[in-house]
Amino acid sequence: MNPSDDDHPTLRRELAGDVRSMAGDLRDGLLELLVIGGPVVLGAVVGWFVAGTTGLLVGGGIGAAAVALWFAWVAAAWLRDGVRRLRGRS
Question: What pTM does this model have?
Answer without folding.
Answer: 0.60
